[in-house]
């Protein structure tokens, strides 16, 4: 048998939320609406947070491929660990 403990303060959050509801005549609703539409949607804000990141990733990956293909020599193939022993 599961009985809920009574809140000592007498405050019931469910009743409070039901009574509060949504404000019918919010004077700031029109002024707040622009924040979440058009170029200010969550996806667009995230895309603009790191300008040039995509180009940088492609350039870095291209350099890594170039380095592996063209800048390896026979000396590098043995590894740095062999020189220390």
What does this structure look like?
This protein is mostly helical and 85 residues long. It has a domain at 51-76. 48% of the residues lie in helices and 0% in strands. The chain crosses the membrane at residues 48-66. Belongs to the complex I NDUFB3 subunit family. It comes from Friedmanniomyces simplex.
What is the fold's blueprint, element by element?
Elements: H1 13-20, H2 29-33, H3 42-47, H4 53-70, H5 74-77
Strand-and-helix sequence, N→C?
A: HHHHH
General form: elongated
Q: Share of helix among residues?
A: 40-55%
- Average pLDDT score: 78
- Counting DSSP H or I runs of 4 or more residues, the number of helices is 5
Radius of gyration: 31 Å
Main sheet makeup: none
Number of strands: 0
Unreliable segments (pLDDT under 50, ≥5 consecutive)? Answer: none
- Measured by DSSP, the beta-strand proportion falls in under 5%
**First-residue to last-residue Cα separation:** 74 Å
- Class derived from helix and strand content: mainly alpha
Question: Short description, anyone?
Answer:
This protein is an all-alpha fold and 85 residues long. The protein has five helices and no strands. The N and C termini lie far apart (74 Å).
Can you tag this structure with a few keywords?
respiratory chain, electron transport, mainly alpha, mitochondrion, 85 residues
